[in-house]
Amino acid sequence: KENILEVENLQVSFHTYAGEVKAVRGVSFSLSRGETLAFVGESGCGKSVTAKSIMRLLKPPVAEIKPESKIICDEKDVMKMSGKEIYALRGDEISMIFQDPMTSLNPTMKVGKQIMESLMLHRNMKKAEARKEAIRMLKMVNIPSAEKRVDNYPHEMSGGMRQRVMIAMALACNPKILIADEPTTALDVTIQAQILERGTAKEIFYESKHPYTWALLSSVPKKGDASKEELYALKGTPPDLILPLNECPFASRCEYCMEICKEQNPMETSLSDTHKVSCWLMYPKAPKVKSFYDREE
Ligand code: SF4
């Protein structure tokens, strides 16, 4: 399948008074046309920074995408784009839905006008046609009385409606890639992204090999026992990234942690063309452990 997005060795740092925070360390993935790719992890683990890096939304000099990072969108090198090209990339190629609508809706402008601006800029529509299309899009995202709501300011709508307006705005540009991000505080410097587990939905849900993924899966409620059992919660917080991080980023919280895990960050092991895992347990001489699946039986 043809890849529409390729990210290779993405490295992002934040320069803070306390020192350099390596927020994203060597993240690689690709997305093909028609494919849905989900990033799963605790809040604050680096998903948003990864998404914002692709759209070049992080502000230098505080945030720095390291030059060795490669971001290729529809065969174009995003890292080498001029300001004008990046502006065209946002909307024409990639749109992002921020779950906090106030971060990207303009509070001083009617929502219809905001959608119309996108349509006129990215789809070359004339004003009357853009207004008709804006109403159609508001209906599509289930905004009641769209003909009237089109002239509302964001503060005249409920939070849920504003969120749907954001979705309509993101779709208005007819982008090739749509990124839907979860709520997060802007520039959260405690974050870190390193992909520990990568695979198809089947590999992640039924054949996962990483203790972090097992912990995440354990926190999913099981059918029928919601009232009986307390949900599993991952203990501790991600590591302090100001400190040099040579160990496995999950070491301080992993119940399978071995000596080697505290000394060396595990390399990625390939289990199949699609299934990759970064964990010392995958080392051929590592002790066999009882996994999440063994316990389920
Ligand atoms: Fe746990 Fe070690 Fe695997 Fe990290 S490398 S997840 S600490 S077993």
From TrEMBL:
<keyword id="KW-1003">Cell membrane</keyword>
<dbReference type="InterPro" id="IPR003593">
    <property type="entry name" value="AAA+_ATPase"/>
</dbReference>
<keyword id="KW-0067">ATP-binding</keyword>
<dbReference type="GO" id="GO:0005524">
    <property type="term" value="F:ATP binding"/>
</dbReference>
<dbReference type="InterPro" id="IPR013563">
    <property type="entry name" value="Oligopep_ABC_C"/>
</dbReference>
<dbReference type="Pfam" id="PF00005">
    <property type="entry name" value="ABC_tran"/>
</dbReference>
<keyword id="KW-0472">Membrane</keyword>
<dbReference type="GO" id="GO:0015833">
    <property type="term" value="P:peptide transport"/>
</dbReference>
<dbReference type="InterPro" id="IPR027417">
    <property type="entry name" value="P-loop_NTPase"/>
</dbReference>
<dbReference type="InterPro" id="IPR017871">
    <property type="entry name" value="ABC_transporter-like_CS"/>
</dbReference>
<dbReference type="InterPro" id="IPR003439">
    <property type="entry name" value="ABC_transporter-like_ATP-bd"/>
</dbReference>
<protein>
    <submittedName>
        <fullName>ABC transporter ATP-binding protein</fullName>
    </submittedName>
</protein>
<dbReference type="Pfam" id="PF08352">
    <property type="entry name" value="oligo_HPY"/>
</dbReference>
<dbReference type="GO" id="GO:0005886">
    <property type="term" value="C:plasma membrane"/>
</dbReference>
<comment type="similarity">
    <text>Belongs to the ABC transporter superfamily.</text>
</comment>
<dbReference type="InterPro" id="IPR050388">
    <property type="entry name" value="ABC_Ni/Peptide_Import"/>
</dbReference>
<feature type="domain" description="ABC transporter">
    <location>
        <begin position="5"/>
        <end position="261"/>
    </location>
</feature>
<keyword id="KW-0813">Transport</keyword>
<keyword id="KW-0547">Nucleotide-binding</keyword>
<dbReference type="GO" id="GO:0016887">
    <property type="term" value="F:ATP hydrolysis activity"/>
</dbReference>
